[in-house]
Amino acid sequence: MGSSENDWHDVSPTKPSAEHMIPGLYALARCWYDRGDYAPSEKIYRLIINIDDRVKNITCLEIVLSAYDLARLLTDTERYMEAEHMFLRAINRCTHCLSQDHKIFALILRSYGELLRKMKLEKEAVALETRAADLGAYATVDRKSDSTYTESDTAVSSATIG
């Protein structure tokens, strides 16, 4: 055997392979999340976030959606400080990958506002909800024209940002 068994530990994922792998991982995490089984979905979301940390300039929509879904999961399990950190990350990645005018950005702001209400930060929650409303977060989405969003804010997509 010409190489060490531990050589694979030194290999970093490349951008193209990561961008092709992330949509499948996200779909798997969403399956667990939608079933209400948070432990496996949380692990997969954290794996996706870890890949995003290691591989620079990934532009997959699923990176933003993973941070958003993980923030919601953390909120649902009453880990508010972690959830706030993940909402901020989702906002940052959305701004970087999509824009502040994107529908997902508005959904993130609205959900972040809900978290702030749970944390008894009414003034900050109102400011975010107002911003989200200005962006059109409360508009009904036509599922025939855009399968990425539903009226219940569940984001499911396997498309990448083009």
Report on the structure:
The chain is mainly α. It has a single domain, classed as Serine Threonine Protein Phosphatase 5, Tetratricopeptide repeat, CATH 1.25.40.10. It has six helices and no strands. It has helices at residues 15-34, 38-54, 61-76, 80-97, 103-118, 122-134. Helix 4 runs antiparallel to helix 5. The longest helix has 20 residues, at 15-34.
- Please provide the count of β strands: 0
> What characteristic shape results from the CA principal axes?
globular
Low-confidence runs:
137-162
Which class do the helix and strand fractions yield? mainly alpha
Number of domains: 1
Proportion of residues in extended strands: under 5%
CATH topology name, in short, is: Serine Threonine Protein Phosphatase 5, Tetratricopeptide repeat
Order of helices and strands: HHHHHH
- CATH level-1 class: Mainly Alpha
- pLDDT averaged residue by residue: 80
Our count of helices gives: 6
> CATH-wise, what's the superfamily?
Tetratricopeptide repeat domain
- How would a crystallographer describe the biggest sheet? none
What separation lies between the terminal Cα atoms?
A: 43 Å
What share of the residues lie within helices? 55-70%
CATH architecture: Alpha Horseshoe
Radius of gyration: 17 Å
